[in-house]
Amino acid sequence: MPAELACFQERCRARFPVSEVIYNCPQCGSLLEAVYSGARQPAADLRALWLARRTSNAPLDQSGVWRFREFLPFLPSYDSVVTLREGNTPLLGAPRAARYGGLDRLTFKHQGFNPTGSFKDNGMTCGVAQALRLGMRRVACASTGNTSASMAAYASAAGLQPVVFIPHGNIAYGKLAQALEYGALTLQIEANFDQVLALLRRLAERLGIYLLNSINPFRIEGQKTIMVEMMEQRGWRPPDWVVLPGGNLGNISAFGKALRELKDAGLIDRLPRLAVVQAEGAAPFYNLLRAADRSRLNPVGHPQTLATAIRIGAPVSWPKALREVEASGGLVEKVTEQEIADAKAVIGRCGIGCEPASAATLAGIRKLVHAGAVRADADVVAILTGNVLKDPDYIYRYHTGVLESPGGGLIQPNFGNKPVVVPNNEAQIAAILDR
Fold first, then answer.
1. Contacts of 230 (CB under 8 A, 6+ apart)
2. Quick check: is 406 in a domain?
3. Are 106 and 52 in contact (CB under 8 A)?
4. Based on the domain organization, do 234 and 321 belong to the same domain?
5. What is the C-alpha separation between 394 and 319, in angstroms, rounded?
6. How far is CA 240 from CA 353, 374, 381, in A?
7. What is the DSSP string of 173-223?
8. Total domains present in the chain
9. Which CATH number characterizes residue 255's domain?
10. Which residues contact 362 (CB under 8 A, 6 or more apart)?
11. Biggest CA pair distance of the chain
């Protein structure tokens, strides 16, 4: 299928070749998206083809992204694809979390099972493939953590030089360690994420570096496959709701695009509703959905949350995210630091675990159910975006009662599990265990 880049805005819709290094429409400044012309294969044929590939040992077929490559037809060939067997993430039932959220049942789609531990890998394999196709030698991203880890891994595997721009002091060490280990030139900038991204965009254009943040439309294409895989796992039965955390809003943009394309292709018969959950101290999208004028997002100048993956005050993908929420009849909620921390501990007690930003989903579900916005008997899939070991310091501090909120004061360990110091004495330890 022929591929182009198209301006996202309906009033413009200017088209550009996919071989151009471009992120925004030169005519109106809006975001771009990949579009395809020509007929797709019949839905039944696609389902059978994708299912058959699950038994294949070919590297492309073992990828949970490239197994669905008919949904990503932007490459002239697959010679530039570097795969680390991304995707292939499970759907996990969580009865205890369902009860906490007020639901009869709840399923987690856990993207923390990816090679670098987050959903970013689904998009990064596509972004790096496009960088190679364009003949780029250096790639870069501004990151609060997961993007840097993923880009560093895929760029290094592809023989490219990864350059990471991160806000100084605003990244979890579990994520920073990955960028360092995977060989990225890591620059810690004394600025917040939004300022760092603006700086990087200027430098990328000046120095000929390929940008791999979520404004890159090929990142969004890869992240679409999270929804394709989820629908296949569910036998192509859409849930009532898909709930996910919201930071830079690339994921909601990708999910909405995927679901609309799946419906247009006859692979699903309806769209699930999308719910985005933001941290209270970094909730510009939540504020937008409650404003009289939705044509302009007001950034949060100093976003504050311990959920570093969503500590973003000026999300670049908000126009796309707004379209997808409105198209699905969706909702946007915000949650406190206390609500995130408690929800994260509950997810841990399910034997699942996740990074702090992921837990915003369960915290948001709890609020939405209690408010009557989501029915208790609804079929809900919540996205866990990152692995539990992305921010181990947060976990230890919560369970030991010393986790401080960005606004001051301690977060209460309502589900705390503090380690117990005991003497090397069998009788005393036995007495503790008996209690």
1. 91, 109, 242, 381
2. no
3. no
4. yes
5. 32
6. 24, 9, 8
7. HHHHHHHHHTT-EEEEESS-HHHHHHHHHHHHHHHTPEE-STTSHHHHHHH
8. 2
9. 3.40.50.1100
10. 97, 100, 101, 106, 343, 344, 346, 347, 382
11. 77
Nearest-angstrom CA–CA distance, 211 and 78: 21
Dist. CA 79–CA 36, nearest whole Å: 20
Return the SS3 of 296: coil
Name the CA radius of gyration of the chain, rounded.
Answer: 21
Read off the tokens for 99. 């009860």
25 and 102 share one domain: no
Q: Which 8-state DSSP code applies to residue 405?
A: P
d(CA 317, CA 162): 23
H or E element that contains 258: helix 250-264
Sheet containing 32-36, strands listed edge to edge, beginning at the edge strand earlier in sequence: 15-17, 3-7, 32-36
Secondary structure, 3-state, 107-150: EEEEHHHCCCCECHHHHHHHHHHHHHHCCCCEEEEECCCHHHHH
Does some domain include residue 209?
Answer: no
Question: Which stretch of DSSP H or E encloses residue 163?
Answer: strand 161-167
Q: Are residues 294 and 223 in the same domain?
A: yes
* CB neighbours of residue 404 within 10 Å: 12
Task: Please report the beta strands in 190-319, taking only residues with DSSP state E, as ranges in sequence order.
Answer: 210-211, 241-245, 273-279
**How many Å apart are CA 118 and CA 188, to the nearest integer?**
21
Query: Would 189 be classed as within a structural domain?
Result: no
Which domain, by its residues, includes 21? 1-35
- Per the CB < 8 A criterion, the answer to whether 97 and 106 are in contact is yes
Per-residue pLDDT of the chain (435 residues; tens, 9 = 90+): 689 999 999 999 999 999 999 999 999 999 999 999 988 899 999 999 999 999 999 999 999 999 999 999 999 999 999 999 999 999 999 999 999 999 999 999 999 999 999 999 999 999 999 999 999 999 999 887 899 999 999 999 999 999 999 888 767 778 889 999 999 999 999 988 888 888 999 999 899 999 999 899 999 999 999 999 999 999 999 999 999 999 999 999 999 999 999 999 999 999 999 999 999 999 999 999 999 999 999 999 999 999 999 999 999 999 999 999 999 999 999 999 999 999 999 999 999 999 999 999 999 999 999 999 999 999 999 999 999 999 999 999 999 999 999 988 999 999 999 999 999 999 999 999 998
Do 109 and 23 lie in one domain? The reply is no
Q: At what angle do helices 250-264 and 217-233 cross, to 10 degrees?
A: 60
Residue type (1 letter), 68? F
Question: Which amino acid is it at 215?
Answer: I
**Is residue 129 included in any domain, yes or no?**
no
